């Protein structure tokens, strides 16, 4: 296997999740259709989608055990404060990882999103 080229998260409410990712986190919409919304981040360097469920999800807990990491150009201290200002509850403090400094947020369905300020700039 060479690389992961795309990720798609099943969400309970497509419109609410679309608002969360665009209005709260600042993601840009690449394309959209009635079943999905594809986001681009950092001028299209990162791309992933949220989508309506592929199978019934009633009564199921989404997001458990799933973490998606985004390397960012921003200072994570400033980015975390920006997200808090947008009404997002972050999941814990900024941490030191082998890859750089990072922090986590959870989306509306419990998916953990990690924003990483890499050691290389």
From TrEMBL:
Extent of the signal sequence: none
Residues annotated as domain VOC: 3-118
Organism superkingdom: Bacteria
PANTHER family: BLR0126 PROTEIN, BLR2520 PROTEIN
Identification of the protein by name: VOC family protein
Source organism per UniProt: Chitinophaga tropicalis
């Amino acid at each position: 296997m060479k690389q992961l080229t795309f990720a798609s998260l099943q969400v309970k409410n497509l419109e609410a999740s679309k608002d969360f990712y665009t209005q709260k986190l600042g993601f840009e919409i690449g394309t959209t259709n009635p079943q999905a919304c594809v986001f681009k981040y950092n001028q299209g360097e990162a791309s992933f989608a949220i989508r309506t469920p592929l199978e019934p999800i009633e009564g199921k807990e989404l997001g458990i055990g799933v973490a998606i990491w985004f390397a960012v150009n921003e200072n994570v201290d400033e980015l975390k404060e920006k997200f808090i200002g947008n009404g997002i509850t972050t999941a814990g403090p900024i941490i030191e990882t082998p890859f750089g400094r990072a922090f986590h947020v959870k989306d509306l369905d419990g998916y953990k999103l990690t924003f990483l300020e890499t050691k290389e700039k």
